[in-house]
Specification:
Blueprint (H helix, E strand, L loop, with lengths): L2 H34 L6 H10 L13 H14 L5 E6 L4 E9 L3 E6 L4 E3 L6 E6 L5 H31 L1
Helix pairs in contact: 1-4
Length: about 170
């Protein structure tokens, strides 16, 4: 390979990495805007959304579990402009994922996204709520801002070794 080819390939790698970083940041910003423009629904709006949402039509299997149902339901609610919480219920041997709305007129309600039923948690039941800010994009951002530039930097020693061998 000629020296000019290596420099062109390195420059192309830099452009690709920069495009991935910029794209990831833009998508992350759009997702943040979606969250911050969402609001707590009224009790009736939450019930209506739950009835119309199609997440409960999915089939439970090894790859589509309660976590998938809850995640899809939360994303669908955010897409409709409603803030929706992701709830993990803790049991001694396992856990279960459902969702919740903090309705503006009747407070917190829990929904089982697998069948659209309202759930009442027993007193003392351990659970945690995540008011999801963004979806999977933080991990993509980490990938873009740390791993890809590191890979690009790792190619530089290979380029110098190649150049040294060519000059001998």
């Amino acid at each position: 390979m000629e020296r000019g080819v290596i420099e062109k390939v390195s420059f192309l790698c830099i452009i690709i990495v920069c495009a991935i970083i910029v794209g990831t940041v833009v998508v992350y910003a759009v997702d943040l805007r979606r969250y911050y423009s969402s609001r707590d629904p009224t009790y009736e709006e939450a019930l209506q959304f739950t009835r119309l949402d199609q997440t409960d039509k999915n089939r439970y299997n090894q790859s589509y579990t309660c976590i998938s149902f809850a995640g899809d339901f939360v994303n669908n609610a955010l897409n409709k402009g409603y803030r929706c919480g992701y709830v993990i219920i803790e049991f001694p041997e396992t856990g279960h994922a459902i969702v919740c709305f903090n309705t503006s007129d009747k407070g917190l309600i829990f929904v089982e996204p697998q069948n659209d039923e309202l759930v009442t948690l027993p007193t003392g039941q351990q659970f945690s709520i995540t008011w999801r800010i963004v979806s999977e994009f933080p991990s993509l951002l980490v990938l873009s801002l740390i791993i890809l530039p590191s890979l690009m930097i790792a190619t530089l020693p290979a380029t110098s070794i190649y150049r040294r061998k060519r000059s001998m």
